[in-house]
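S.,

Sequence below, as promised.
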Amino acid sequence: MKSAVKIINLKTINSNQIINLPEHLNGELSNSKSDLILLIDDINNPVKLKNSCIDLMQIAMENNHQAGMVYADYEINDNKNIEEVHLIKHHVGRVRDNQDYGRVFLFRKSFIEQVGGFNESLKYNYLYDIRLKLSEISEIVHIANKTVPSTLKLRLTGGSLYQVTASKEKTNVFDYLLSDKNVQREAENVLTDHLKRIGAYLSPKEIFDKRPAYLAKPTKQASIIIPVNNRPDFIVEAIESAQKQTIQDIEIIVVVNGGENDPTNQSVKRYLNGGDKYSDDNPAVRLITTDINNIGFCLNIGVKNAQGEYYIQLDSDDRLKPNAVEKIIQKFESDSTIGMVIGSYEVWQKLDNGEIIRENNIPIVTHSEWTEENGRNNLLRINGAGAPRAIPIQLIKNIGFFDMNENPFVRNYGEDYDMVLRISEKYKIGRIYDPIYEVIRHSGGTDHSIDQNTVNRNDEAKDWMRKEAILRRIAQNK
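The prediction came back faster than expected:
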């Protein structure tokens, strides 16, 4: 069967100093007598196919006449250990440019020709582009490898289709900040064109809704809501940063979700009336204790008890800049169609000795992809939505509360991403490009020591939300 498949190695093409890879690939397609094209992306790392890899992928193609692309789980060999990489199955919400689809792809030539071939104007994202185009007219098929318990790995291996020689990279949620801006802009254009073709693009010329009027007049300008579990030391920094705001007509609601025995309660009580850190001159701190560790529930119970006009995010291990609330309210007051304000932040590091220092190697996170023209479309391509996020509390109640692990795959992750997507479909997103927030990285943070299973679960959660958003957008445009 292997004779019926044309094999293309990107490394071979690249070593011949071909300037326009997509153009060369189109030439290879036109010269191929086979309808099946095996593309091996081995430019950066060697790829070794298992002996039966092509046979298996070809049968998958024969088994599904609507398949335009087949991809598969693989192994990484760092010359010391072999680790399985389990990919996730394609659906309409898999529109991120950094989604791992592996290094080996079997394409059906006739479908590639149907979408006009590889885009020769693209320098970096031609594989991302062809995947999205093929997904519009054909099936994207994933061949999975079984998950083997660690105790059996020495005896049960070999289910992956190929092996990549490379060091296993640690997951870093800030990697995208260091990527080339030209690559990012090109990827944005690729996604935007895809959304237009499938009817999910939202035009910047659309008339936005106005923020809903309050049913009862708020007694505070803003409510800073802090969900927390077992962080008695960090919560002190968070509360005090909230109390130092230039606008003092606010309240701070701390929702401890570790139950009455969570030591964070005692730290918070120091700021309540009668505590040693209490002062009438500071914004009031309110404590809500629940025995269910569910971040979405914490935010929702905080919103239901809030007396402020706006909800403002503050994670328990982060800090607000003193002018954060002031700048957020100014932005809301500038336009009645703004349904959410998203700020910018600095990344800080807490050392083992307790000192907190600025991470100078990470630039200020502005999420500049949140442009007024295309931000809500580009949001579907990336995982980050910026911080802090602020929303009118009446709008939260009207549009629906934060996710409480109700969406598939959500496990105290991305509880507000669905909220961002839904609001951005109806309202403008106000942006603040000055840093008004400080993210504190530490060994117990959610962006450290993330294993592959956790990465996949998190990707499944947000990609499901993207799928729902795309389907909503298509219906909205109709």
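The chain has two domains: 2-169, 220-477.

Coffee later?
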